[in-house]
Known about the structure:
The protein is mainly β. Helix content is 0%, strand content 47%. The protein has no helices and 10 strands.
Amino acid sequence: EVQLQASGGGLVQPGGSLRLSCVASGFPFRSYGMSWVRQAPGKEVEWVSGIGGSGPGSEGYAGSVEGRFTISRDNAKNMVDLKMENLRPDDTGVYYCSRGYRGTPIRGQGTQVTVSS
């Protein structure tokens, strides 16, 4: 059974930082690209960032987060992280870890990120 458990969300002021983590199990982790997607209230799911199975050099970002977010993975620990800096109110939403570089319906329970003063 594929399991993806995200954590690390919270309430942060504009300009602040958070680091999300996702632990994966139930599939050969290093064989899959992984991604983070998010869903803001009342909006559709949006792809945020993806990383290939080999890790460094294969990262991709949505234009809205380029330069502020950094995705990484540790294949030895079956983990994928998202470091988020200079957060803005429009980054608010539920963030999900997803299997697949561009995000797929295979995603676990999300973690809430709220950016507000």
